[in-house]
């Protein structure tokens, strides 16, 4: 089977899922090409995320002119390669790819994976939301199938775009090997992700400020980069900014931390949160789409709806660490079973081979 992936968002969780899927498909015997676009936050060692069997093709889709030319380039490349399956990842590639493939008939079969569809955003007004919805309907003129990464995302897609089938395949992670004798946990709260409005760094900063007023021995770390204004606010609250780090370095930070704090306003299904569970952290996550699909409150972590609730959870964790051991064990087991690579690849394989409705 010849499979083509198209991805413009070559960073963070999207890149992790694209590389995991593409690498796994080559190991299953498929011929795989990844068409990608470079962003400012794209890792310089992007090729190392893929094994030697994945062919990488660069087609830029960042600025307006590039997006217009990308439509023709994508159409030409996919048609010439006679692909069986095309996976389109995230909003820009999802839109451009479907437009590029209009008029090419029923081959190839198209799966669009939004990785947190823009319709989930709560930081925009009705006009912009309506515009995004109109663009989704326009792109949906091309026969394709959505793959949501969580039930929350799927429910929204099925409600707003009922003309196209929507499947659910939850995200997965490569299980990291935890040392037999891991380092002692520090009194540290950590977050991994792009510093942007979706992640609500202002709420993170406020939580950090209040917690550190009560206990200065508790440290807050943000792994990732973003806008200068948000970074200044985080630093003024005492948050240590690590910038972007290689996966192994991120793993080392997670091994030493105690709490993973997610203040996200919306998510698809956050890979970084799942990875935190795998590394044995206690998750304190805002009750939003995506987070609620990963965490079961008071069983595999905590969900909060206000700053006061988040602070209370964090203080309780550090004041009563031994009482949370069962929670970290339960969360770790779930990360290994529910979010395994083998499960993810099998579900994707079954979708590719299933009959179209």
Name the strands of the widest sheet in spatial order.
3-2-1-4-5-6-7
- The total strand number stands at 13
CA-atom Rg in angstroms: 21 Å
Low-confidence stretches: none
Query: Could you tell me how far the N terminus lies from the C terminus, measured between alpha carbons in angstroms?
Result: 20 Å
Q: Sheet with the most strands?
A: 7 strands, parallel
| Mean pLDDT figure | 93
Helix amount, in percent? 40-55%
User: What's the multimeric state?
Assistant: single chain
Q: What's the SSE pattern?
A: EHEEHEHEHEHEEHEHEHEHEHEHHH
Proportion of beta-strand residues:
15-25%
Structural class by helix and strand composition: alpha/beta
| SS element count, helices | 13
Shape: globular
Distinctive features:
single chain, 357 residues, alpha/beta, 7-stranded parallel β-sheet, 6-stranded parallel β-sheet
Folded structure, characterized:
With 357 residues, the protein is α/β, with parallel strands linked by helices. 43% of the residues lie in helices and 16% in strands. The protein has 13 helices and 13 strands. It has a seven-stranded parallel beta sheet with strand order 3-2-1-4-5-6-7, sandwiched between helices. Strands 10-9-8-11-12-13 form a six-stranded parallel beta sheet, sandwiched between helices.
């Amino acid at each position: 089977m010849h499979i083509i992936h198209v991805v413009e968002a070559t960073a963070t969780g999207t890149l992790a899922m694209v590389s995991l899927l593409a690498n796994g498909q080559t190991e299953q015997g498929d011929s795989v090409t990844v068409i990608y676009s470079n962003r400012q936050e794209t890792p310089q060692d992007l090729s190392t995320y893929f094994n030697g069997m994945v062919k990488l093709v660069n087609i830029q889709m960042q600025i307006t002119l590039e997006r217009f030319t990308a439509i023709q380039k994508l159409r030409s490349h996919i048609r010439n390669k006679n692909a069986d399956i095309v996976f389109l990842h995230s909003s820009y590639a999802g839109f451009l790819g479907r437009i590029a493939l209009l008029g090419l008939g029923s081959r190839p079969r198209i799966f669009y994976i939004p990785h947190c569809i823009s319709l989930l955003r709560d930081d925009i007004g009705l006009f912009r939301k309506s515009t995004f919805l109109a663009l989704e309907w326009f792109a949906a003129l091309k026969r394709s199938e959505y793959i949501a990464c969580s039930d929350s995302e799927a429910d929204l897609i099925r409600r707003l775009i009922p003309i196209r089938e929507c499947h659910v395949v939850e995200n997965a992670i490569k299980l990291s090997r935890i040392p037999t004798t891991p380092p002692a946990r520090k009194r540290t709260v950590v977050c991994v992700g792009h510093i942007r409005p979706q992640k609500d760094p202002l709420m993170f900063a406020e939580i950090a400020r209040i917690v550190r007023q009560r206990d200065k021995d508790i440290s807050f770390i943000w792994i990732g980069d973003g806008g200068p204004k948000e970074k200044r606010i985080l630093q003024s609250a005492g948050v240590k900014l690590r910038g972007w780090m290689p996966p192994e370095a991120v793993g080392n930070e997670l091994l030493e931390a105690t709490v993973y704090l997610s203040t996200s306003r919306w998510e698809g299904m956050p890979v970084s949160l799942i990875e935190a569970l795998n590394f044995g952290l206690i998750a304190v996550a805002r009750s939003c789409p995506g987070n609620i699909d990963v965490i079961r409150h008071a069983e595999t972590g905590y969900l909060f709806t206000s700053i006061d609730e988040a602070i209370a959870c964090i203080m309780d964790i550090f004041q009563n660490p031994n009482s949370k051991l069962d929670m970290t064990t339960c969360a770790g087991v779930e990360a290994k079973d529910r979010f395994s690579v083998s499960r993810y690849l099998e579900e994707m394989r079954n979708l590719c081979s299933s009959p179209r409705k």
